[in-house]
Design goal:
The structure is a single chain. β4 (55-62) and β5 (68-74) form a beta hairpin. The chain starts with a strand and ends with a strand. The chain has a 4-stranded mixed beta sheet with strand order 3-6-5-4, covered by helices on one side. Strands 1-2 form a two-stranded antiparallel ribbon. It is globular. The chain is mainly beta. The protein has 1 helix and 6 strands. The longest helix is centred in the middle third of the chain and has 13 residues, at 39-51.
């Protein structure tokens, strides 16, 4: 994994091998991540995405690093998205 960022609340770019180990493709290995300012908003975005026909790819919840909270889903075309909040300190 390689990531470039100026700060946690600004756009960033990360290059990571696909989580499932299969070859990267439009729907596998490419993900857009949307930052919000609360865990409740992560929950709301994920819930709305599923309600509109998206596919759950990981329910909202804490992930790995302290303060990182995220939910994952796919849109109707199969593109993977993530909504997250990262609170430090």
């Amino acid at each position: 994994m390689v990531a470039w960022a100026v700060s946690l609340d600004k756009p960033a770019l990360g290059v990571i091998k696909p989580y499932d180990g299969r070859p990267a493709s439009c729907g596998n290995g490419v993900m857009v991540a949307l930052v919000v300012d609360s865990n409740a908003k992560v929950d709301e975005v994920h819930q709305q995405a599923i309600a509109l026909g998206g596919k759950d790819e990981g329910a909202p919840g804490p992930r790995g690093t302290d303060g990182f909270y995220a939910g994952y889903f796919r849109d109707l075309d199969g593109h993977k998205l993530n909504c997250y909040c990262w609170k430090t300190g």
